[in-house]
Amino acid sequence: MNVVEWLKQYYEPVLYALALVLLLLALVKPSIQLEQQVRNYLLIADISQSMNAEDERLNQQTVSRLAYTQHLMKQIVHKAPCGTYFSLGIFASDNVAMLQTPLEVCKNLDVITDGIDHLEWRMAWKGNSRLSFAVHAATHVYDALNQPAQMLFFTDGDEAPRVNVTIKQDLSGVQIGEFFTFVGVGGPEKVAIPRYNTANKPVGYWPVSDNNNAGAVGVTYADPSSDEPDPPVAYAEYDRMLSQLEEDYLKSLSAEFKGSYIKGQDSETFYRAISARKATANFVTAYPLRAVYLMLAILLLLASYLPDVLYRRRQQA
After folding, report:
1. Beta partners for 205?
2. What is the pLDDT of residues 204-260, one digit of tens each?
3. Which of 2, 161, 201, 259 has its CA 20 to 30 A from that of 303?
4. Element (H or E) spanning 312, and its range?
5. What does each C-alpha distance from 77 to 27, 35, 80, 99, 255 come to in angstroms?
């Protein structure tokens, strides 16, 4: 008896055996590990107190720049396809700190969005803001990831105190420009910066005078660790510290190290521009095969009835 004749005689047991093997594979090995190019994003939020200024619109309401940043971040995460990885970091003073290392979006969606939801100004270790220093700090964080990533740095570009020539950083040696994007958040008009106490309750607006003596790494400006329950506030409108989105500064800063700039907007155009960035990393990811195994098993079981169906049709003909 040759193989063909044997299969004709025992086709049903063979099909049942193959279906059983596929069902066992669906239970024991529902996925395989393959290396592929993936999109890897590092989301960095500026949490300096100017990000509390309220000059963005969301759902027909005025919201703070930080709240708008959180919304944009979560939309980017929710719109990302499975297999995309996200890291989360914060910027304050002259440094960047990592909160989450790369996490796959579909398996860790709740963890990623929860981290974004909990961003706030009280996480800052100092109150001043040095973006040019932060670019160097972000480079070190980027290297620590061990995988290339598209870095999206959400900020209003408002530095406090202002950078002068003597402390301006040379960014020409920064090598991650093609992966670095400043995402501008805030409006073009100057608005007052709300001031909060240590209980995160609004107490007024930041006074201009409170920023006058802050040095390059000074802590006299908005140091949340030593802030009083009732800190000084501006008593007159003319004394309020004003802030706006510094687009020109962010564009010129990014140009120094061949980075890029984009205005953060709650629009499909913005989200498409972010998703269009090229894949940056190689990850070993799990390809799910359980559904394939189950479907093939079902087809094999159905195929066992095929000879009977064909025989009945011939009889009817």
Report:
1. 194
2. 999 886 554 333 333 444 444 455 666 788 888 888 989 999 999 999 999 999 999
3. 2
4. helix 306-316
5. 30, 22, 5, 16, 27
